[in-house]
Amino acid sequence: MQNSQRVLGITSGVILMLGAFQAFAVTTLKLSHNQNRDHAVHQAMTQFANEVKEKTNGEVCIRIYSDSQLGNQRESIELMQNGALDIAKSNAAELEAFSPAYSIFNLPYLFRDKAHYQKIINSDIGKEILSSSQAMGFIGLTYYDAGARGFYAKKTIRTPEDLKGLKIRVQPSPTAIAMVKGLGANPTPLAYGELYTALQQGVVDAAENNIISFTLSRHNEVAKFFSLDEHTMIPDVLLISNKSLKKLTAKQQEIVKKAALNSSKYMVQLWEKSEKAERAKAEQQGVEFIVVDKTRFQNAVKPMYDDIANTRPELFEMVNRVRKVE
Ligand code: GCU
């Protein structure tokens, strides 16, 4: 009797230990991005992390590192490829160097309006692009709205002629470089984190971005004129490495994918609110938002499309697919 009691005691001890072990079987995934914690995209990703934690009963925990703490966007993607990082929020411009399919988002004035852009993101084209980087060791989980981009500088830019000869910071995207060259200016690819100082010290004369990033990275302190030319709408992209995805069970993978989509929907609402608030704040601080005649900019970049038709047939085919979406 005593013996069996002892055995029972030992067995339940083992079960307890196993229970305790399971309770600590948490998979922690590191997520890196380059915006500060006030940015709408940080809030959307916080919701993503919270939903994953809740739905997996705490088994999958996503730890977010903001402000390029783990490196700029390019470095984060490379860390992910090397297995040192699980998830990265990047941008479709940066991703062009890893998967050419992302070029489509960097073409100026391809989307007729925001509704058209949203349709593409949610279409099969959008999904194809997210999985196009699989062979590079990662895939896209979802897109995050990142508004429309405009040029900004220390002087007013109303027409393409006003851009002539300016040194303009662009993201490291071949299409962005071609666009700025086509507009008669000199493209200077730089990482986002280096731009404030570059503008302040006159290394570049101008840059281009959406309103939220313009104000939250304090570029409005050094460039007071923001043109609402809306040349591109380039989404942010939430990426996960193939290896990290495989660390999760099928059920956990499903939860992660669903939570990413939900946070993307949340981001659309966050964006609208935040963009209004940031614009009002910038205006109070003396920034002038300039309404421009977009057709002049549209005409100036038309030759880019002839060039693509002649040199990149697969991209041109995608352009035509996008244009056909009503
Ligand atoms: C946007 C985008 C960032 C990107 C930045 C840039 O703000 O959301 O991901 O880094 O543009 O111009 O570099």
TrEMBL record:
<dbReference type="GO" id="GO:0030288">
    <property type="term" value="C:outer membrane-bounded periplasmic space"/>
</dbReference>
<protein>
    <submittedName>
        <fullName>Periplasmic dicarboxylate-binding protein</fullName>
    </submittedName>
</protein>
<dbReference type="InterPro" id="IPR004682">
    <property type="entry name" value="TRAP_DctP"/>
</dbReference>
<dbReference type="InterPro" id="IPR018389">
    <property type="entry name" value="DctP_fam"/>
</dbReference>
<dbReference type="GO" id="GO:0030246">
    <property type="term" value="F:carbohydrate binding"/>
</dbReference>
<dbReference type="GO" id="GO:0055085">
    <property type="term" value="P:transmembrane transport"/>
</dbReference>
<dbReference type="InterPro" id="IPR038404">
    <property type="entry name" value="TRAP_DctP_sf"/>
</dbReference>
<keyword id="KW-0732">Signal</keyword>
<dbReference type="Pfam" id="PF03480">
    <property type="entry name" value="DctP"/>
</dbReference>
